[in-house]
Amino acid sequence: MLYKIAHILRDKLSWLWDIIEWFNGVIFNLRYGKKIRGFSFKTIPDGYEIAPINKIPTSDLVTFFNNQPEDAFMYFRPHGFDTKSIRLLQRNKAFLGYVLKDKKKGTIAGYCFNRCFSHGQGFRGRMVDVDYRGKGLGTAMNKILNEVGFGIGLRLFESVSKDNVASYRSALSASNVKVVKELPHNELYLEILPD
């Protein structure tokens, strides 16, 4: 039910969604901010570094999304990818967004996030750069999202299309999952379970 309401607000009433996200961010920060500030990652893959999106220039993130092929967005539409949308996410305390950067090249190899809610739930998502596909980074980012999400005490969820084979396999290989509900369009609503 929450999933449906969130998508209606985001897609049809974006101005109301922005207000709710701001308010949620304030409450989330009061409840989880100290845990997040004290958190450090342990599962970063070799050759990469992780950075919160608020430490990355907005233009670099917009360029990352603009450089992805159209098929990358077939199953991935969690937010806008323009400058204004990215800036809102960078300021949102309840949007735990990260990039995985290639240490040698200095380029963004992947993007991942837990969209969190003040009542203790998070919804994870990720995108691997087209030039880094097939290297296990989707699975690595799922583990990163699990680490931070469970590390601060959230219940984690994700929706994934069975037609998006790479993302579906990544979700299953990185995590213990429980199918909460089958959604339209061959999608599954998953709860991610702690190991």
Automatic annotation (TrEMBL):
Residues 51-195 form the N-acetyltransferase domain. Signal peptide: none annotated. Transmembrane segments: none annotated. InterPro entries: Acyl_CoA_acyltransferase (IPR016181), GNAT_dom (IPR000182). This is GNAT family N-acetyltransferase.
